[in-house]
Structures are given as C-alpha cells and as structure tokens.
Amino acid sequence: MHSRYAAVFDIENLELNTHFRPGNTDPLRNNVEKELTPASFESLELSSQLLADINRAAVPLAINSVVKSKHMQLTGDQLELPSPQLSATDKRALWALISEHLDKL
Question: Helix 48-57 vs helix 88-104: angle between axes, to the nearest 10 degrees?
C-alpha cells in the first residue's frame, strides 16, 4: 500500500521484507526504456497559461520537458504533444492522460 493511502486510512504502512521483495529489475528496465526511446526530440514552447494549467493538474507529477511527438503521451517527467497549439479535443485527451497517470500513483 502506498504510504499516502496508509496515512489517509490511519493504518500502518507495510512493506515486504527483502526476502519477498522482487529482485532489482530497474537497471534492466532502464536499458529497455533507453533503447525504445528516440534519442532526440524537438522541444515545444507552450503558452504560459497552458503550461501552468498542466503543472497544476499534474501536481504530484513533475513535468520537466514538453517535446513534439506524433502521439500524446507522458513518459516519466516528459510530456509529448503533437503541437504547441491544442484543440479542444486534444486538451480533453491531455487531461484524460494526466488523470490516468495520477490514478496509477
């Protein structure tokens, strides 16, 4: 259970001891992500209002860069958008994407 939820429900946060914890798979995962991630992205300049709204909506997430990509996605601290000017449909899709990532926390 996430410690935030443990605090909300006023219960003890339990963690698996090292015997039951899965092995360290992070280096393997990081190598795979690096291989699948394109090396260079074109940085996007968003309007200050849109960038402020995105950062407010994604409060626990830290979005440090916004880059151009064919598909809208959020990978780590990088937000990939098709263009700096978003239509109403694109904005709805962006809020749904951020909400989906927040639900996973």
Answer: 30
CA distance 70 to 100: 19
How far, CA to CA in Å, does 1 sit from each of 11, 38, 76? 10, 34, 21
Dump the DSSP string for 44-77: ----HHHHHHHHHHTTTS---EEEE-SS-EEETT
CA angle (25, 26, 27) in 5-degree steps: 95
The 10s digit of each residue's pLDDT in 43-72 is 888 888 888 888 888 888 888 888 998 889
* Strand ranges across the sheet with 73-75: 42-43, 65-68, 78-81, 73-75
Residues 6+ apart with CB under 8 A from 31: none
- Per-residue pLDDT of 12-28, as tens digits, reads 666 656 666 565 545 54
Under DSSP, the state recorded for 15 is -
